[in-house]
Amino acid sequence: MSGKLKVRQVKSQIGGNQSQRETLRSLGLRRIGHEVIKEDRPEIRGMVQTVAHLVTVEAISAAEAEDVQPRRPKNQ
């Protein structure tokens, strides 16, 4: 499990219970369409399983994860 996971929020957290909202926040997801790259670890897989109906997950290699450019803030 040396790869990475690309997690993308595809549905709203509105209507979800408190633990689902907290899990999304812990994953670093703030809005629909937001995407984060996380280590492929059992803890992260468990968090993703908790909100599986709200996110999509894609396994990527570590090399692919390094190629991803972070977005710049809009106000700069």
Automatic annotation (TrEMBL):
InterPro entries: Ribo_uL30_ferredoxin-like_sf, Ribosomal_uL30_bac-type, Ribosomal_uL30_CS, Ribosomal_uL30_ferredoxin-like. This is Large ribosomal subunit protein uL30. GO terms for cellular component: cytosolic large ribosomal subunit. Residues 10-21 have a biased composition (Polar residues). Residues 5-55 form the Large ribosomal subunit protein uL30-like ferredoxin-like fold domain. Belongs to the universal ribosomal protein uL30 family. One of its GO terms (biological process) is translation. One of its GO terms (molecular function) is structural constituent of ribosome. HAMAP family: Ribosomal_uL30_B. Keywords: Ribonucleoprotein, Ribosomal protein. Part of the 50S ribosomal subunit. The keyword Ribonucleoprotein applies. PANTHER family: LARGE RIBOSOMAL SUBUNIT PROTEIN UL30M, MITOCHONDRIAL RIBOSOMAL PROTEIN L30. CDD domains: Ribosomal_L30. Residues 1-21 are annotated as: Disordered. Pfam families: Ribosomal_L30 (PF00327). It comes from the Bacteria.
